[in-house]
Amino acid sequence: MKFTATQIAGILEGDIVGDPNTEVSKLSKIEEGTEGSLTFLANPKYTQYIYSTRASITIVNKDFAAEEELTTTLIKVEDAYKSFSKLLEYYNKVKLNKVGIEQPAFISETASYGKELYFGAFSYMGDNVQIGDYVKVYPNAYIGDNVTIGNNVVIFAGAKIYSESVIGDNCVIHSGAIVGADGFGFAPNEKGEYQKVPQTGNVILEANVDIGAGTTIDRATLGSTIIRKGVKLDNQIQIAHNVEIGKNTVIAAQTGIAGSTKIGENCMIGGQVGIVGHITIGDNVKIQAQSGIGRNIKDGETLQGSPALNYGDYNKSYVYFKNLPKLAKTINQLEKKINNNE
């Protein structure tokens, strides 16, 4: 796809300095710009590169004033970073704007869907599925029986949505994600064998939720596993049965959350965090990477370590335990002096 400077300026409501007919077909970093590419300058540290970049078009802030001759066409906007992000969003919509039902694909006679559906080859839509408008389902995706999907949802290739799941408007589910698999529920019998506890609940994703590639969200034993509005989950995260995650919380890769734990709103959870089951984590909590959480957490706490400590206490303690070998040596020397004086 090619775009002219005039078209881009129209999308961004920007002003052109240079050739309005300049065309671009790809994106680049400003220091790696090549002919036919579009880039941006937002960080003053990179200003030097605007004089050497070979990018055909560069988005800059309105207050930018060139001190040397430029070969790139400028589009001046209020905020170059936000405008570039807006352009990326627009580009993705155009790039992913597929419509129609590819063959072979299976759609149950009892399923229903709205306008401008895209349903990729080898995908499956089960009984009584209800899908809204402008939904994109990429090849090899699976949508089980009785699933409800809102408007403007994107389900990428190979994602699996198990039966009874509810997906809200504007959600994005990336490849390999599994929504609604059975929770890890087993009970020992009198022989010491583990028998499966039926998982009869479902998963609910509210609006504007992003699910990363390879992430798994288990259905509830009873009731629902709930991911609230605006939650963003990275790749390879495990969400167990009956977990609830509050709105606008973000969680980084390889985090695991055990069953029935409740996480509040606007939390930030780093990668490889482990959280035990049946606890409550408050709002606005920050958990550093590789921390282990085994207790209830109050609103606004920042934690690190395993088991996790208050972030400030952890840093103070670290000063001591990183020096334990030296401290032990000092203690041994003092003990010898004491013993020699006896």
UniProtKB/TrEMBL annotation:
Highest taxon listed in the record's lineage: Bacteria
Annotated UDP-3-O-[3-hydroxymyristoyl] glucosamine N-acyltransferase non-repeat region domain residues: 22-89
Active site, renumbered: 241
Key words of the record: Acyltransferase, Lipid A biosynthesis, Lipid biosynthesis, Lipid metabolism, Repeat, Transferase
UniProt record, GO biological process: lipid A biosynthetic process
CDD domains attached to this UniProt entry: LbH_LpxD (cd03352)
One Gene Ontology molecular-function label: N-acyltransferase activity
SUPFAM superfamilies per UniProt: Trimeric LpxA-like enzymes
Enzyme class: transferase
Gene Ontology CC terms, in alphabetical order: membrane
Reaction equations catalysed: a UDP-3-O-[(3R)-3-hydroxyacyl]-alpha-D-glucosamine + a (3R)-hydroxyacyl-[ACP] = a UDP-2-N,3-O-bis[(3R)-3-hydroxyacyl]-alpha-D-glucosamine + holo-[ACP] + H(+)
Pfam family, one: Hexapep
Annotated metabolic or biological route of this protein: Bacterial outer membrane biogenesis; LPS lipid A biosynthesis
Record's keyword annotation contains Transferase: yes
EC number: 2.3.1.191
Known role: Catalyzes the N-acylation of UDP-3-O-acylglucosamine using 3-hydroxyacyl-ACP as the acyl donor. Is involved in the biosynthesis of lipid A, a phosphorylated glycolipid that anchors the lipopolysaccharide to the outer membrane of the cell.
Recorded family membership: Belongs to the transferase hexapeptide repeat family. LpxD subfamily.
HAMAP family: LpxD (MF_00523)
Quaternary organization: Homotrimer.
Protein name per the record: UDP-3-O-acylglucosamine N-acyltransferase
Lineage, uppermost ranks: Bacteria, Pseudomonadati, Bacteroidota, Flavobacteriia, Flavobacteriales
